[in-house]
Structures are given as C-alpha cells and as structure tokens.
Write a structure and sequence with these properties.
The chain is an alpha/beta fold. It has a single domain, classed as Alpha-Beta Barrel (TIM Barrel). The protein is built from twelve helices and ten strands. It has helices at about 25-30, 35-40, 75-80, 95-110, 130-135, 145-160, 180-195, 210-220, 230-235, 245-250, 285-295, 315-335, and strands at about 60-65, 85, 110-115, 165, 200-205, 225-230, 255-260, 260-265, 275-280, 305. The strands form two sheets. The protein has an eight-stranded parallel barrel, surrounded by four helices. Strands 8-9 form a two-stranded antiparallel sheet. Helix 8 (about 210-220) links the parallel strand 5 (about 200-205) and strand 6. The two termini are about 30 Å apart. The structure holds magnesium ion (MG). Magnesium ion (MG) binds near residues 231, 258 and 306.
C-alpha cells in the first residue's frame, strides 16, 4: 500500500491507497457507485475515512483572524476546541511567515486547522438576491480574479499543512447548457487541478443550490478532488431543501460539515427571504437526527460549529460554548 501524508498534517493529510486496497469502510460509504468510490480512494481529507489517529467527531469551530465571521483563537483556546476551520486571512497575511506564526498560535491554543475557507472582497450576504449577485466564483465580472485569489488561498493552506480548502462557489446557474455554466465548470476544474498539485481537495459549501443541482454540478466538473462541506442550516436559510434529505443525497461527497442551526423563513418568502440563523439546538435542523444521519453515512470527521454573529462577540462565545456541550453530549450518546 502506498501512503502519502503531507508534512504538518498528520491528522488530515492526503492519504493515497492503491485501488486494489480499498478499505471496507470506504466501500461502505460509497453509495453513489463506482465513480464515487474512485474519488474516495484517492482523496480522504479531513480525517473522515480511514484515519485512525483522530477522535471521531472531533469538535471544531469556524475561526477567523482578520476576515470572516468566525471566532477568534482566544475563544478556541478558552473553550479547548481541538480543531478549527479557518476563514482565509487577507492577502497581506498570506505568506510563509504569517503561516508559521499562525501555526504557533494554534499550537498554543491546542487546536489544529482542518479546512481553510476562501472568501472575497465585494461579497455581501445582505439578502439572498445580493448574495446571488456577489458571492463566490459565479459572478462573471470577478470570476478570473477570484480564481487567481482562490489559488493563492490554496497555496496558503498548503503553507499551513492543510489538505482541504473550502468555499461558497455561489449560485450555480440552473441552465447546464448556458455559457456561464460551462465557463464555471472550466473555472472550477482549473481550481481543482491547482489544488491537486498541492495534494488538496476542494470542499463546496452547501445551501445556494438544491442537493440535486449540486450533484449535477459535481458530476459535470468531473474531478476526483471535489467534495462537499455540508451546512444543514444553509439549506434552511436559503430555502433550498430539507437538510436531512439533502444530506442523504450528497452524503458520499461530504468530507467536512458545519454544525449550525436555523429556522425556516415563512413559506411565502422561502427561497427569496432569509431564514433565521439561531444558536445550535434552537432551530429546525434537529441536531440528533443530523448526527445520526452523518453516522449512517460513515462520516467521522470534525463537527465544526458555526455561529455567524461576529457583531456580538460575547453572545457568539456563549452560544459556541453551549454548542460544544450539546455536541459532546450527543456524541457520547450516539457513538460511545
Ligand atoms: Mg457554513
């Protein structure tokens, strides 16, 4: 068996095994057929399958340095949270010296980075229409420059020893025959091929598409290192589908998850007006059902808490503390 691990990424490093040595657990989770099995054999990021040196369902939190809505590392340290997904810092903070300094802070906080998420200047989540117009690689006017920046973010993630990068790609055009859709396929392939050169997978955040359209897009892109970061609350916030049903559909591509909760918008505005993000356990996701579904799918990677209220840091800290206790209790109940 050939095994390759990235330096500084012993928990999460890319593991490659020969196709004739597919572990039973990989076969078990590959419910979407041979294509899916091939992908899982080559890219097993974020400790989801096969890595035995990481606690199943390790608690995580979405963290920020100087950009994004995540918590700061002092909260991570205070709450003793063992893993973080990191919102990429601004460009001036993406270099080897900054990476080294950040890794030292992570070591001090006792945490490890599992995924680096990209975000871009000019994105706005003010309302769903604005989100569709401004977020991700979909807006055509900024597509080329954001592709270039996302490659830089992947390179920074490599400097951190992280083998997965994530992003909101944006509202994928519904017309698969359109030039915008076809160009988005090419753009995504270019990003994936760059990430592959770094030994990395790319995880698409859910919510802006239905599960069915996300699967169509993944199949059309047709690259072995494209996976999903599943966010159940986003399915509710954007009104794109029942989160548990969606998770079952896309499950074999899920390599990282967010633990976030939300309440549905009133039916008459669902899909055009936001639902409401709330503290974990207070919304419509159903955390126990969510975790039990992840277990059925074979997901054992980190449970990364997201609480997107950066304008109220005290409440964010309190809600995350409560979420940690909720997830630790459910984990003990479900997989102990
Ligand atoms: Mg999310």
């Amino acid at each position: 068996m050939l095994v390759i691990r990235l330096a500084n990424a012993y928990h999460f490093g890319l593991v490659i095994v020969e196709p004739d040595e597919i572990p039973a657990r990989v076969e078990h989770s590959a419910s979407n057929g041979d294509h899916s099995i091939r992908r899982q054999v080559k890219y097993r990021s974020a400790g989801t399958l096969g890595d035995t040196d990481m606690q199943p369902w390790s608690i995580g939190v979405f963290a920020s340095v100087d950009a994004g809505l995540g918590v700061h590392l002092d909260v991570v340290k205070e709450l003793k949270i063992p893993t973080v997904q990191l919102h990429s810092p601004h460009r001036e903070s993406r270099n080897p010296a900054a990476a080294e300094a950040f890794l030292a802070r992570c070591a001090d906080a006792g945490t490890t980075v599992t995924v680096v998420f990209g975000g871009f200047e000019g994105e706005s989540y003010a309302d769903i229409a604005t989100t569709a117009r401004t977020v991700g690689l979909v807006p055509e006017a900024t597509r080329a420059e954001r592709l270039a920046e996302m490659k830089e973010i992947a390179d920074f993630a490599k400097q951190l020893g992280v083998s997965a990068v994530g992003l909101h790609i944006g509202f994928v055009p519904s017309d698969r025959a359109s030039s915008s859709y076809k160009d988005l396929i090419s753009t995504t392939r270019e990003l994936l091929d760059h990430a592959a050169g770094n030994g990395q997978a790319v995880h698409l955040e859910t919510g802006q598409e239905t599960a069915d359209h996300l699967l169509e897009f993944i199949h059309d892109v047709d690259r072995p290192n494209l996976f999903i970061n599943f966010d159940p609350a986003n399915m509710i916030l954007y009104g794109t589908g029942n989160p548990i049903e969606a998770l079952k559909k896309v499950g074999s591509y899920v390599r990282s998850v967010h633990c976030k909760d939300a309440k549905w918008a009133p039916e008459e505005v669902r899909g055009t007006g936001w639902g409401q993000e709330v503290a974990l356990g207070d919304g419509d996701v159903g955390m126990e059902t969510y975790l039990r579904t992840l277990l059925e799918l074979g997901y054992k990677g980190p449970l990364t808490i997201e609480r997107e209220i950066a304008h109220d840091r005290d409440r964010q800290r309190a809600d995350i503390g409560k979420a940690v206790r909720l997830l630790e209790g459910l984990r003990a109940q479900i997989i102990s």
